[in-house]
Amino acid sequence: MESFSAFSIGPRNCVGKPLVYLETSIVLAKTLWYFDFEAAAGPLGAVGEGRDRGRPGEFCTWDVFNSTHDGPYLVFHPRGSAVLYEDLKPRSMGT
């Protein structure tokens, strides 16, 4: 059986793994800071709900060799209070 290990394992694992995890967490945090999100309208928004477990509205994952899922499908809206363009402008180092 083959497996996929993106960063390798053991004493010779990837030295960039902590950096990738840091960058990923920053991207996720900024996405949640600058955008509000909601489930997609209609039947697409219900994809992946736990209806078979008697818990509608709860998102489910299935454990296989790693994990898999279907959904959730989300719609993102920029927050009115967050000014993305202003925050991403380069700042001068001197002032």
Task: Describe the protein.
It is a single chain. The chain has 95 residues and is an alpha+beta fold. The protein has one domain (10-88). It has helices at residues 17-34, 84-88; strands at 35-39, 49-50, 55-59, 74-78. The strands form 2 sheets. A two-stranded antiparallel sheet has the order 1-4. Strand 2 and strand 3 (55-59) form a beta hairpin. The protein is flat, with a radius of gyration of 19 Å. It starts with 16 loop residues before the first helix and ends in a 7-residue tail after the last helix. The model has no long low-confidence stretch (mean pLDDT 76).
Structure in a nutshell:
24% of the residues lie in helices and 18% in strands. It is α+β, with helices and mostly antiparallel strands and 95 residues long.
N- and C-termini, Cα separation: 57 Å
Total domain count:
1
Summarize the amount of helix as a percent range: 10-25%
Radius of gyration of CA atoms, rounded to a whole number: 19 Å
Question: Ranges with pLDDT <50 over ≥5 residues?
Answer: none
Q: What's the tally of helices?
A: 2
> What average pLDDT do the residues reach?
76
Question: Strand fraction band?
Answer: 15-25%
Query: Assembly type of the shown chains?
Result: single chain
Strand ordering within the main sheet: 1-4
Summarize the helix and strand pattern as letters.
HEEEEH
| Computed structural class | alpha+beta
Q: What's the β-strand tally?
A: 4
Which of globular, elongated, flat, extended, rod-shaped describes the shape? flat
- How would you characterize the largest beta sheet? 2 strands, antiparallel
